């Protein structure tokens, strides 16, 4: 096998390795390397500097003549293989890789790689300086300058985190190591003509190593004690960048599996709906284990700042996440086909392109149940494509309901077809539906949704509402063609005529737009008001709206008020609540409203409410998170700070015996 892998011109052969405990002989890692594709790549030097290519000589074979001809030799000191490998990668004409565990590495306590001292620091920085000397006067240096800086950051931060208890054997005092490390950082940056402080990406993203490096450099500049700096490193150590969807969600798309359903704009490009695998137009099968493996890989790339698809995402948070899906699946979305009987103007072929399922969703549900991955489930969503037109919908809906009756399945349906199993789950409080109307009359409905049976949609909504009106959400996506005052009134009147005011109402906007304009805000306020004065149970603006609303200022509100009719203006906006407001919900919606609205510039938050035991007693921005029953001890007004779970929160408030009159019903901006 080795002979077949080494061609006449191959200078370096990279291979894989396994890791074993030196004392017990137990396997710790079956496969160490994830970089074999990179080691052969044209960008291998930049990748090497940024710690994306393994630095261990022991995982490589070298042609002897190649080493001699290029005078590639080990220097003295520790970590001498770091610059040796760089020199070899720089000079090699041909590099091949073999994904086979040739080497068996033993993890030995107290070894060079498992200990830390000033000698280790000097060894790494001697290697960095030697690598700089190899390329500083070459045409390669301009392209390698930023990767070299990343190398300094990564080496520094990785040594800092090793100072924490339980990481490695510390052979010297932490203060002495910190002082040596700082001196070597300053020296290496000066050699490379780099200066601190360093610039930050427009998105504000910094890798964990960069955050650690900045804490160290700033701490040294301020004269922080060793104890203070170690405490700061300990707070950073368990954290990594991720998002709720990457860690807790599985989203089945037409012919592909996604890790998120969020959309955002970064540097003028619409991004999101990140695909894990699939998308090649062929039928395929997969398991829950396959998804976990793909998520682990994406998680790693995000934290290396090497994920183009997630770069600039506003939903990424630097927290202690653990591994993706370490608690099973909490959010499961079925959009596994693009079969639909509508062609909405704001939609795309992704959702109405007529693609049949490319994989067996039922078989995948079985793998979830076998892995006991549904035990912490919080949300199940059916979208697409129109869920009810897929022949197996009723079967799959019922299959999922078995054994997880405590979780409501959320079905985003256009209500053109009536599903009895879905109606039964509505009655049992095991499902709710979301239906977009987006028009106040049949003609405009036909134009926007490309469907002629406007009356049939309302008929099915009446039937579903008869099963459980509180489990029905009626959505209105505001577009230029459906936002006139007359049309909004017609829509609100239709809600009354069809006896649907006990349902819940979601106001949304076109996800393809970058921002909500002032005119759209006027329509949002007007529609909210029209539904409220007609007795709608619950009205809320969704996350698409709030993501696209710029920070609301007093000038914004004055401009809106100048454009609104006096009858709307008098009662539309939620007044100031100087005594305080209770915010029920601590997720992204609550935080974005708190950050962007003018309302919370004048109305303080008394406390947050969250039912999860692990969150009770925590503080968000200095404000305490309390249990739901805490709201019984006062009469403060309550704002529901959620989207998908807003109707359930409303139910929870009623179930506690709290008057719905306490729920803020007017527009909050």
From TrEMBL:
Cofactor: [4Fe-4S] cluster
Organism per entry: Rhizobium aethiopicum
Name of a matching Pfam family: Radical_SAM
Domain Radical SAM core residue range list: 324-570
Keyword terms of this UniProt record: 4Fe-4S, Iron, Iron-sulfur, Lyase, Metal-binding, Pyruvate, S-adenosyl-L-methionine
Protein name in UniProt: Pyruvate-formate lyase-activating enzyme
InterPro entries assigned to the protein according to its UniProt record, in alphabetical order: Aldolase_TIM, rSAM, rSAM_sf
GO MF annotation, one: 4 iron, 4 sulfur cluster binding
